[in-house]
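EI: anyone free to look at a 406-residue chain?
SC: sure, send it
EI:
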Amino acid sequence: MARRQLRPDRRLAPRPLPAHLMSACGLWLSSRIALPLLRPGLPPWNRPGRRLLALAEEIDACGRERVAAALDREIIGRVAAFIGGLEAYRRHPYRRVAGRRPVRWQEGGSRLIDYGGAGPAVVVVPSLVNRYYVLDLLPEHSFLRHLARLGLNPLVVDWGEPGAAELGFGLDAYVARLGRALTAAAARGPVAVVGYCMGGLLALAAALPRQAAISAVTLLATPWDFHARAALQAGALGAVGGGLDGLERVLFPVEAIQSLFFAIDPFLAQRKFARFATLDPQGDAARRFVALEDWINDGVPLPIAVARECLVAWYGRNQPARGAWRVAGRPVQPQALRRPALVVIPGHDRIVPPASAAALAAALPDAEMLRPPLGHVGMMTAARAAEMVWTPLARWLMAAAARGAG
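SC: here you go
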């Protein structure tokens, strides 16, 4: 089996690099700018104001020149740690090695890749905006390989990068393509479907009209109520999508997509690369960090119609939760699913609020819930992901297959 190294371009990582650099500089310099303004006697409007007042008194007691000098040293140290972490990441020797696996189905730029295993088939559907390989991040830490080891036959959808065939696609076209992949996978009997994040919405929409080919549905961190806990932010994203009106047959670029994720936590890169600078570059922790960071920065652009529909219909208008989301003219109604479902809701998810995913579980007629104390990406990358998510999910799928066979 031929193997090849994938060499990501790390020069512009983390993406969007200018935004990450500006947010870090703003964070560091804000304290220096605020220091001369922070003086005793300011009115303590609220609890943070009272803390600032106490801090101003401590600064005066220590001496403002001494505090300013110490603050300058701290800022210089943080700059050095961040830049040092970035450079260490760019120099790290790790490169993902991709092997050739059997392809069970292919259409346009999309493939259904067989990860082996002799048990019941499971079609795993990732998001459109990221490469599928977070599900197979490292040989020793791979959701797909874990499912195969536990007696399932995982088939993962590799959506590929939009080409000429996909340039005019909307969500309808992608769901139709996924439906044909499910039909191909079910040629030997019903298959289970596992959808991750946006992939869960696509999986549900594709599974509903072809339930005879589906044995069970598992939805991981799948949003449904887009206004749960974050209605203002969702409305802002809807406005971004509205600005895309009139654009056709172009791509919504990776930098724009990454900017939306950046807005969730503008200071994340500064924290994580400063931590990375402290790791042993030869150690396992550094290798895992680099593998994950390469995946994060290896995004995929979206056909403009898909981006517009996601932003306007999902985030802006909250169509799924309102029962108004339609695919090929048919409403996507979770209540119509007549197959067992497992909804995995990570408790520390900052991308899909747990309340958003819980709304989908409540709408499904036969759903169980698994609530691991992990983050959105941590379900696939955390050290305890196998224990908390992968193994329980695999056992649930095996039980569902056994009930179906009985």
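EI: The longest helix spans residues 64-91.
SC: 👍
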